[in-house]
Amino acid sequence: MMLTIKDLQASVEEKTIIKGLNLTINPGEVHAIMGPNGAGKSTLGYVLSGREGYEVESGSVEFEKQDLLEMEVDERARAGIFLAFQYPVEIPGVSNMEFMKESVNAARKERGEEPLSAAEFLKTAKAACKQVNLPLDFLKRGVNEGFSGGEKKRNEIMQMILLQPKLCILDESDSGLDIDALKVVADGVNSQRDGKRSFIVVTHYQRLLDYIQPDFVHILADGKIVKSGGPELAKEVETSGYAWLEGHEEASA
Amino acid sequence: MSQWLANVLDRASTVNDWLSPVRQTALATLREQAWPTRRTEAWRYTSLHEVAELELKQAGNSASVANAEAPAIAGLNSLDLVFVDGQPVTDFSMLTLSAGVTVTQLHGVNAEQQGRISELFNQAKPAHHLFGLVNDVLAEQGVVIDVAAGADVQQPIRIVNFVTDGVESHHRVLVNVGDNAKVTVIEHGAGNGHSMNTAYAEYVLGSESKLEHYRFAMHGQEAIHMGGSHFKMGESSRLNSTIVGYGSRLTRIDTDVIHAAEHAFAKMNCIYLLAPKEHFDLHTTIEHAKPNGTSEENARGIVGDKAKAVFNGRIHIHRDAQKTLAELNNRNLLLSRGGQINTKPELEIYADDVQCAHGATVAEIAEKELYYLQTRGIPRSQALVMLNFGFVQELVNQMPNKALSEWLQPLLRERFSAMETK
Fold first, then answer.
1. Run of H or E residues at B162
2. Distance set, CA B360 to CA B41, B267, B328, B329 (Å)
3. Cβ–Cβ of A106/B371 closer than 8 Å?
4. Residue B10: is its pLDDT beyond 60?
5. How far are the Cα atoms of B1, B5, B15, B23, B167 from residue B9, in angstroms, in the given order?
6. Strand spans (E) along A78-237
7. Where does the sequence pass through the membrane (chain B) (predicted)?
8. Rounded Cα gap, residues B320 and B395, in angstroms
9. Which of B374, B377, B391 sits opposite A107 (nearest CB)?
């Protein structure tokens, strides 16, 4: 087991958003989490990353036999959790290159490896940049500074490729992308599937799942997983939308 | 009148050297000065109570100071003039000077130069700076740099002044940059301990001359530092100045750029970095007295917890100074809610055909930026250092001398760590 979430309940500004969520992820698995707006999809990513203001009220999260909830944001990242943001923040003044070099070396230090030299890092970064189809001068620019929505998403995937995490959480990495950009993102993700690395793919639409084949699909509604299944469940959502959930909630209530 | 200032006036009467005639004028002005209070506009946000009753040992006039070596700056290859508490350590008779440069100790100016050099005194520094007047009457030590017309001086000249615990000292620099001459001068102040030091420098730029100037005020937390760099711009002269200041118990720096002739260009970048509880006050003035002048000023500050920064940026465009271009920008970053920044752009424009822009901002450190960096495995304190770097990097990158900007990087890293609220 890589990740075990048990009865997780979490709140933001004293409003409970995640209301008893259970999820188990094994190495190498791809789990898609779908659901309507406001279901708590993004909140789940923030809670797992340890964002301040996202309070865990009860439940537990175990990541590789460690109590994830006890760890700082950066410790979680170095332990191998990566969150690709829906809206990555712009940090003018800090160069993408410098930022990623520090990130990669922080991860290497954690694994007891020597830091990469500037030249070694540049080589790796250039390859990753090429892989997600970003011009090389993006490495020199400020972190996400003046990037378009699609460029920001691709920059997130580039970071994922460089950091080699164990568990990748992709928060609506498809939103706002045209089909070509979507393919670049999906190819980037697929290139990292190696039978050990796991993924949580959070998405509103089924479209991304045409390109990233999930092993499991979960429907998240009102802070709980209300239905789990295989890839066919995503198809079901595509044809019938989320309207059927209302009936489900009434039934469960 | 404070006890300290009364002592200054007493001591001033014992100073007797070739500068005495010009010192007398300053002394007369100083006698008429009231001790600043919170109601004195120039000192509104900076209290002088630390100075009012100050009693420190006076730096001696005999040069018997401990050996001190200037912190080396790789790749700079500067001519280093080292002082401790204003007293020379460098043997000036042994200097190897670039062609066209004369470097003399303030008290060692020979009779034939005296007339000309005394004309430099208070040429660029206005008489309204209280501690500048103190420096006028007390600074017996210092440096005179004379760059001959047309000289293109490649080797930067660095004046290092260390302050030491328990000592009060006064230090003066006078620089004449001849017509068409080109030179780089670095004023480098450092040292720890509870000290009080005034350090004023005046630069007179000839026609079409170029001055690259740096002032590093990197004194320890306990120091009291009062100083200024003042520039009188000749016709079509160019100034590129970078000031990097740390806070301390009390640091106050005044700068004046006087466009005394047409077509001068002055660029000034200032960075101030305050560790918790420190105080730093920067007052800058640009006087556009003649037409067709250009000035660009950028000041950025980062303020730690319970620290207080003051920035006052004045641009004064005189009635005759048509076609002036003047820009002033001040940006501040507060590292905690406990920090304080008082920023005031001050524009006085009497000409009607000018372009003048100014702006001031104060921002808090962005939690969402810190969080983003942390989600990539960077520890919070390191992330803070990166964000601080990001805030001032642009100005560091604009420093024309790359050896100096390289040298600055690790110092800033160290400084940012010291600025973090633990």
1. strand B157-162
2. 19, 18, 9, 6
3. no
4. yes
5. 11, 6, 10, 12, 18
6. 81-84, 91-95, 142-143, 167-171, 198-203, 216-221, 224-229
7. none
8. 32
9. B377
* A115-131 residue pLDDT tens: 999 999 999 999 999 99
Domain A3-252: assigned CATH number: 3.40.50.300
Apex CA B277: angle with CA B275 and CA B280, to 5°?
A: 70
Residue found by looking up tokens 């170095």 in the block: A78
Tokens describing residue A85: 């943001």
Whether ipTM > 0.90 holds is: yes
Can you tell me whether residue B22 is helix, strand or coil?
A: helix
Distance between CA atoms of residues B242 and B251, nearest Å: 17
Long-range contacts of B396-403 (CB under 8 A, 24+ apart): B396/B271, B398/B242, B398/B269, B399/B214, B399/B242, B399/B269, B400/B212, B400/B240, B401/B76, B401/B156, B401/B184, B401/B212, B401/B214, B402/B75, B403/B73, B403/B74, B403/B75, B403/B76, B403/B77
pLDDT at B80: 95
Q: Which of A92, A102, A142 sits opposite B378 (nearest CB)?
A: A102
What are phi and psi for residue B352, nearest 5 degrees?
Answer: -105, -5
Q: Provide mean pLDDT across the span B31-52.
A: 94
Tokens of B217: 């005020």
Q: Which two tokens stand for residue B46?
A: 């900076």
Per-residue pLDDT, averaged over B286-297, amounts to 98
For position A246, what pLDDT does the model report?
Answer: 65
Mean pLDDT for B167-179 is 96
What pLDDT score does B66 carry?
58
Of the candidates B408, B400, B418, the one whose C-alpha atom is nearest the C-alpha of residue B154 is: B400
Note whether A157 contacts B: Cβ–Cβ < 8 A. Answer: no
Domain definitions of chain B by residue range: 3-363
**Nearest-CA residue of chain B relative to A91?**
B369
Grouped pLDDT means (10 residues each) for chain A, 253 residues: 96 96 97 93 96 96 97 97 96 92 94 93 95 93 93 95 96 89 92 96 91 96 94 88 67 39
**Residue B401, helix vs strand vs coil:** coil
Fill in the amino acid letter for B390. Answer: G
Computed on alpha carbons and rounded to an integer, the radius of gyration of chain B in Å comes to: 21
Q: Do B380 and A88 touch (CB under 8 A)?
A: no
Determine what percent of chain B is predicted with pLDDT higher than 90: 87
Looking at CA atoms only, how far is residue A206 from chain B in angstroms?
27
Contact at CB, A94 and B389, closer than 8 angstroms = yes
For residue A145, the SS3 value is coil
Mean pLDDT over B178-201 rounds to: 96
**Which residue of chain B comes nearest to A94, CA vs CA?**
B390
Contacts of B366 in chain A (CB under 8 A): 89
Q: How are beta strands A224-229 and A216-221 bridged, if at all?
A: antiparallel
**Helix, strand, or coil here: B348?**
strand
Residue whose token pair is 């950009």: A181
Report how far apart, in Å, the C-alpha atoms of A228 and of each of A21, A28, A212, A216 are. 12, 18, 17, 7
What pLDDT does A251 receive?
A: 41
Other CB atoms closer than 10 Å to residue B383's CB: what's the count?
25
Residues in chain A with CB shorter than 8 Å from the CB of B387 are: 91, 93-94
* SS3 at position B46: coil
Instruction: State phi, psi for B293 to the nearest 5 degrees.
Output: -90, 155
The answer to whether B249 and B222 have CB atoms below 8 angstroms apart is: yes
* pLDDT for the residue A250: 43
- The answer to whether B317 and B349 are in contact (CB under 8 A) is yes
